[in-house]
Design goal:
163 residues; mainly alpha; 7 helices; flat; binds zinc ion; transmembrane helix; TMEM267; membrane; transmembrane; Transmembrane protein 267
């Protein structure tokens, strides 16, 4: 009974933390002065939200957080890494070039994580390599948490443009 209640409290707490982190990250972005600070804060928020998302998945799967610290860190780093495509698409390491693209860069296309997930799952099954299976789910969670956060922030901007 106590274990079930503790598990439910933990699920609610981590879900709440994902929301609070996103809200705080977005709120702080409104008050930051420099582009470098905004980029850093945005990137760190993506990374933390992704790590918390993977933690929530581990809790829901009844897996140990301690034994899966590498997966949590991988999720943190991968979600942060996704934004490197801004620089690759801009073909420049200048932040001003990377943040003023006319279209979304390639790692922000949701087909990429779906294909990666599929390829990793198939390789995992073909080679009987279970850790690659876990990796495919971390990739999915990291990309999707990043894309969903980017997407929800884009909605008011899109609505404002259409008016
Ligand atoms: Zn992004």
């Amino acid at each position: 009974m106590f274990v079930k209640k503790w598990s439910l409290i933990l699920k609610i707490a981590v879900t709440g933390l994902i929301g609070i982190t996103s809200f705080l990250g977005d709120t702080c972005l409104k008050y930051t002065q420099t582009a470098v600070t905004r980029a850093f804060l945005d990137n760190v928020t993506h990374a933390i939200v992704s790590a918390l998302t993977w933690i929530l998945i581990l809790i829901l799967s009844k897996k140990s957080l301690v034994q899966n610290l590498d997966g949590i860190f991988f999720s943190f780093a991968l979600s942060s890494f996704i934004d490197v495509d801004h620089f690759l698409s801009a073909r420049s390491w200048k932040l001003s070039d990377a943040t003023n693209l006319t279209k979304r860069p390639f790692l922000h296309c949701t087909t990429v994580p779906i294909l990666l997930w599929l390829i990793l799952i198939l390789i995992s099954k073909a080679l009987n390599y279970p850790s690659l299976n876990q990796c495919s789910w971390i990739v999915s969670a990291s990309f999707l948490s990043h894309h969903i956060r980017d997407g929800t922030r884009r909605v008011p901007h899109t609505i404002a443009q259409s008016q």
